[in-house]
From TrEMBL:
Record flagged with keyword Transferase: yes
Domain of life, source organism: Eukaryota
A GO term for molecular function: transferase activity
Name of this protein: Queuine tRNA-ribosyltransferase accessory subunit 2
Organism of origin: Eumeta variegata
Taxonomic placement: Eukaryota, Metazoa, Ecdysozoa, Arthropoda, Hexapoda
Keywords: Transferase
Length: 124
């Protein structure tokens, strides 16, 4: 993936383009942009059909690991990625370790490690 800055005024504003995605090389996403939040691989309150009608061009899908870890076995078995497994293969998946909508608990931190809180396997 590449990020090309198209405008910068010397302060904080910055316009650019995300491009060069491995699974969708012809897709360009202008920034700043918003990502579509998913729960368990589904965009909340939108079916795949409605999502395609609302957004005819590929969008960023934000998949927090804490609520999509159950997709791992199926996605690995299919070997085409979590977006394809979720039925949203035309969109770009961005997986994060933490869900910013959930409170991060205090404690259980180790140097150079990221604890994936919120997983059913515990805080290990």
């Amino acid at each position: 993936m590449r990020y090309l800055v198209t405008y910068y005024n010397g302060a904080y504003e910055r316009l650019g383009v995300l491009s060069g995605f491995t699974k969708s090389p012809n897709t360009n996403i202008e920034t700043p942009t918003a990502a579509l939040f998913t729960k368990g691989g589904s965009v909340v309150h939108l079916t795949a059909d409605v999502l395609t009608r609302v957004f005819p061009t590929p969008q960023l899908l934000w998949l927090p690991l804490s609520n999509c870890i159950q997709l791992e076995t199926g996605a690995r078995g299919q070997n085409k990625g979590v977006a394809h497994f979720s039925g949203l293969s035309e969109h770009i998946a961005c997986v994060s370790v933490h869900d910013t909508n959930e409170e991060t608990p205090i404690g259980h931190f180790e140097k150079d490690m990221i604890p994936p809180f919120g997983l059913k396997m515990g805080n290990k």
